[in-house]
Amino acid sequence: MKTIFTKDLPGKKIFVTREFAAPLEMTWTAWTDKDILDKWWAPKPWKAETKEMDFREGGRWLYCMVGPNGERHWARADYMKIIPHKFFHGKDSFCDENGTVFPQPPGMDWDVEFGKTASGTKVTVEITFASEKDLATIIEMGFEQGFTMAHGNLDEYFVAQTKTTH
C-alpha cells in the first residue's frame, strides 16, 4: 500500500492518504497510544520517545525524535477535538523538552480521519499551515519522505501483531 501526498499550495494544505491492512480499532489505537506511536512514528534509523501523552480533548503528546547519533528534536501535539475511532484534530508544534513551543520551524494543524475499508482502514490526514512558506519549509525538512517511511514502520507493526495473534 502506498502513501499518497497531495499538496495544495494556495490553500496552504497537504493531504495524506494511506490504507493499512489492519482493522479500524487496531489502527486507531496505533495512532493514539504512546507505546505504539513510539514503535512507528519516526523514520528509521530515528525513533520516537514519548515524554508524556494525554490523549483527550485539551490534552497533549510531548515527544522527541531521537537520531542515530543521539540528536533529540522535540515536538508536541495539542488535541482539540476527538471523535473516538473516527477523527481527531490537533496542532503540532516544534518545542523544547518542556513543551515550550518554538516559533520556527512552523506549527501545523492536523485533521486525522479513520474509515473502514474492505481490506482494513483508510487514514486521511489534512495538514493546514499558516502560510505557503510554512508548508514549503516542512516539505524541505523531508516531511513527505519521513512520514512515508513511518507508515512503512506502522505496516511492519501490524504484520508483527497479526503474527502474534495467529
Which helices and strands appear, and what pairs or packs with what?
Elements: E1 4-8, E2 13-20, H1 24-32, H2 34-40, E3 47-53, E4 60-66, E5 72-83, E6 87-95, E7 108-116, E8 121-128, H3 132-140, H4 143-165
Antiparallel strand pairs: 1-2, 2-8, 3-4, 4-5, 5-6, 6-7, 7-8
Report on the architecture of this protein.
There is one protein chain. The model has no long low-confidence stretch (mean pLDDT 95). The protein is globular. It has 4 helices and 8 strands, in the order E-E-H-H-E-E-E-E-E-E-H-H. A hairpin with a 4-residue loop joins strand 7 and strand 8 (121-128). The chain starts with a strand and ends with a helix. With 166 residues, it is of the alpha+beta class. It has helices spanning 24-32, 34-40, 132-140, 143-165, and strands at 4-8, 13-20, 47-53, 60-66, 72-83, 87-95, 108-116, 121-128.
Question: How would you sum up this structure in a few lines?
Answer:
The chain contains 4 helices and 8 strands.
Shape: globular
Strand-and-helix sequence, N→C? EEHHEEEEEEHH
Helix content: 25-40%
Number of strands: 8
Cα-based radius of gyration, to the nearest Å: 15 Å
Major β-sheet strand ordering: 1-2-8-7-6-5-4-3
Tally of DSSP helical segments: 4
Average pLDDT rating: 95
Q: What structural class results from the helix and strand content? A: alpha+beta
Most strands sheet: 8 strands, antiparallel
How much strand?
35-45%
- Note the gap between the termini: 22 Å
Low-confidence stretches: none
